[in-house]
Amino acid sequence: MSVLYPPTNFGSVENNLYRSSYPTEINLLFLNQLKLKTVIILSEECPEAFALYIEKNSINPIFIYDDNVTIMDNSEFGHISEEMVVKALTILLDNSNYPLLITCKSGKVLTGVVIGCLRKLQGWSLVSIFEEYRRFSGNRHQQQYEQFIELFDTDLIKISNESPLFLRSFKSQIKLAIEADDKSSIPNENNNNNGTFNNNNSSNNNNNAAEDSNETKSENK
């Protein structure tokens, strides 16, 4: 039986959604188990062995990078832009792209930023997002990348009925919360009607009391 070796910084993000550094030849048997359909590569290139594997297995590679920035081969931390993250998240919104792997050279920073923005879209707290981010990035978590996640505008991303369940379920929770909020702000008509009814009864009782008092005075006279 062959031993399977996952890529460095491999992790399961959600059902059929994975993250890692660039896979090497020793990781390819492990990748077979994932039955990948799409790979998001946060760079303009990837190792030759991985590129050949992608082609051989008819996997759809999507390269996402900033045209205005040159990423050096020996650079562990690359550049990430809002446009890159929006493009990556838009691909993640399409359920037909799964199973899917997000990868960059180290599997730490660029991949971590995309996953962090995905978690923000899912409604995670910043504390939980940064805890997960640092678990993969280690001590070199780079404050500017965490700030990028914190400031990322999730309104740029629209969740639809074609999105994966882990995103649609959160959207449903938000919708229910908004509906519950709206209902709680509507005045209770029954209570208002009861109040009117009680006020009318009070008025009638007062009128009856006044009539009885007048009758009593007439009799005394």
Task: Kindly list the characteristics that best describe this protein.
single chain; 221 residues; alpha/beta; Protein-Tyrosine Phosphatase, Chain A; 2 domains; five-stranded mixed β-sheet; 5 strands; 10% strand; disordered C terminus
Question: Topology of this structure?
Answer:
Elements: E1 11-14, E2 17-21, H1 28-32, E3 38-41, H2 48-56, E4 60-63, H3 82-92, E5 100-104, H4 109-121, H5 126-137, H6 143-151, H7 165-185, H8 189-220
Parallel strand pairs: 2-5, 3-4, 3-5
Antiparallel strand pairs: 1-2
Q: What report would you give on this structure?
A:
There is one protein chain. By secondary structure, this protein is an alpha/beta fold. It has 2 domains: 11-161, Protein-Tyrosine Phosphatase, Chain A (Alpha-Beta Complex); 187-220. Helices cover 51% and strands 10% of the residues. It has helices at residues 28-32, 48-56, 82-92, 109-121, 126-137, 143-151, 165-185, 189-220; strands at residues 11-14, 17-21, 38-41, 60-63, 100-104. Strands 1-2-5-3-4 form a 5-stranded mixed beta sheet, covered by helices on one side. α4 runs antiparallel to α5 and α4 runs parallel beside α6. Mean pLDDT is 82; it is low at 70-75 and 216-221.
State the gist of this model:
This protein is of the alpha/beta class and 221 residues long. 51% of the residues lie in helices and 10% in strands.
The largest sheet is:
5 strands, mixed
Are there runs of 5+ residues with pLDDT below 50, and where? 70-75, 216-221
Query: Roughly how much helix do the residues carry, as a percent range?
Result: 40-55%
Number of domains: 2
Element-by-element helix/strand order: EEHEHEHEHHHHH
- Determine the structural class based on helices, strands and strand pairing: alpha/beta
What is the CATH T-level topology of the largest domain? Protein-Tyrosine Phosphatase, Chain A
What is the assigned CATH homologous superfamily of the largest domain? Protein tyrosine phosphatase superfamily
Largest sheet: spatial strand order: 1-2-5-3-4
Total beta strands: 5
Q: What's the N-to-C terminus distance?
A: 116 Å
CATH architecture classification of the largest domain: Alpha-Beta Complex
CATH class of the largest domain: Alpha Beta
**Overall pLDDT metric:** 82
